[in-house]
Amino acid sequence: MVAELDPSYAAIHEAVAGLAGVCDFAESQDGQGFNGADTWLGHVLAAMPADAWTADEALTAWDMLRKYRGQLGRLGIDYDELPQPPGAAELLEARRQEARERARLRARQWRREQYRAQHSYVRCEGAGEQIALAFPYDPALVAQPKVIKGRHFDRDTKANVFPFTRLPQVVAFADAHSIDVA
Question: Is the dihedral of CA 19, 58, 8, 45 positive or negative?
């Protein structure tokens, strides 16, 4: 469960989003945006809604922003005026690395969830005679739809296809795995 949005997270998120807005993913050394080491995490943190951040994401972002003070100033953001998130006063190198790694893991998880949500569906096809179920390859999930009678795999669409009579089982599978049912 994510706690209620800490007001300091919104200001830090705004600063990260500002840098992401001028960043070219470190393609050129133009002094704008994140460096090569920070570009992936910076862009994912900017894409995550601030209310999805935990204290670790806020702490990591706040700490990462320190090295971009000059750029933030050109964007009208004073780093020293950003509120310190919980844990900033006690920030030690080990804590910084731990928070950054946890933030990376959560960012990867969030990114995977977004990808899965965008590429997963259940929908009717063939004038309502068939149901198509698609999701990104996941070894833990692949075997489960195979036990539903009448299933075949359409290699062109990369979707499991079922007769309409199997709708309850397909919807139950989709609900259990947070797949959108159209």
Answer: positive
